[in-house]
Amino acid sequence: MAKFVRQLGQRSLNIVSEAGGMVIFLLEGLGLAFVPPFRPRRLLQEIYQIGVKSTLIVILTGAFTGMVMALQGYYTLKQYGSEGALGSAVALSLIREMGPVLTGIMVSARAGSAVTAEIGIMRITEQLDALDTMAVNPIQYVVMPKLLAGVIAVPLLTAIFDVVGILGGYLVGVILLGVSSGSYFSSMAASVVPIDVYGGIVKSLVFGLTIILVACYKGYYTEHGAEGVSKATNQTVVLSAVLILAWDYVLTSFFM
User: What crossing angle do the helices spanning 194-220 and 144-170 adopt, rounded to 10°?
Assistant: First the structure.
C-alpha cells in the first residue's frame, strides 16, 4: 500500500512539474514574439505547413460530419414533425462543438505529430544546439513561429470545417431527404446567435495554441534516439486529444 501511495505521489508530482514546464515554455515562446529579430517569412512558412496542408483533411472530415449529422438528425426530428429544424440542429452542433473539437483533433493528428517529429529530429541531431551556438535562440527561431501559426491557422480551419459541414448537411437534408431549403437556412439563421460563433472562435484559438504547445514541448525535450522521437510523437497526439476534450468541457461550461 505504501509503495502504491509513493508511486501515485511521484506520478502526480511529475504531471504537475510537466504542466508547469509547459506554461513556462509557452510564456517564453510567446514573449519572444515581441523581441527582434522578426522573421515574418518563418511565420508564413509555418502557417502553410500547419494550416494550408491540413485543409484537405479538414474539408473531408467536415463534409462527412455534416452529412452524418443531417442524416441522424432528420430521422430523429421526423418523429416529432420538426424536420424544418434540421438546419438549426446541424449548424449549432457544428459551430458550438463538432467544428472546433474535430478540427483540433485532425490538426493534432496531422500537424501536431509532424511538428513533434521535426523538432525532435532537430534535437537528436543537435541542430537546436547548433542554433544556440550561433547565438540564435532556438525557441524564438523554431518554436515561436509555430505557436503563432497554430493560433492563426486553427480558427481558420475551424471556419472552413463549419461551412463545409453545413453544406454537407444541406446536401443530405435538402437534396437527398427533401427538407425545404428555405426552412433549412431560416431555422439556422433564427437559432445561431453571436455567442455561439464567439464560443467556437475562442475554442479554436485555445485548441490551436494547446496543440502546437504540446507538440513543440514534446519535440524540444525529446529523448535521444529514434525511439525517443517516436515516443514523443505518440504522446503529442494522445495528450493533445485529451486536452482538447478537457478544454472543451471547461469552455462549454463558461459559454453556457
Answer: 140
Domains in the chain: boundaries:
51-255
- In 3D space, the residue among 129, 124, 135, 106 whose CA is nearest the CA of residue 219 turns out to be 124
With beta carbons less than 8 A apart as the criterion, state whether 236 and 113 touch: yes
Per-residue cell: 192: 445561431
Do 150 and 209 meet the contact criterion of CB atoms below 8 Å apart?
yes
The answer to whether 204 and 100 have CB atoms below 8 angstroms apart is yes
Which residue type, as a one-letter code, is found at position 125? T
pTM score of the predicted model: 0.91
What is the pLDDT averaged over residues 124-142?
86
Q: What are the respective helix, strand and coil percentages of the chain, to the nearest 5? A: 90, 0, 10
If you compute the radius of gyration of the chain from its CA atoms, what whole number of angstroms results?
A: 21
First-to-last C-alpha distance (Å) of the chain: 43
Residue 126: Cβ within 10 Å count = 12
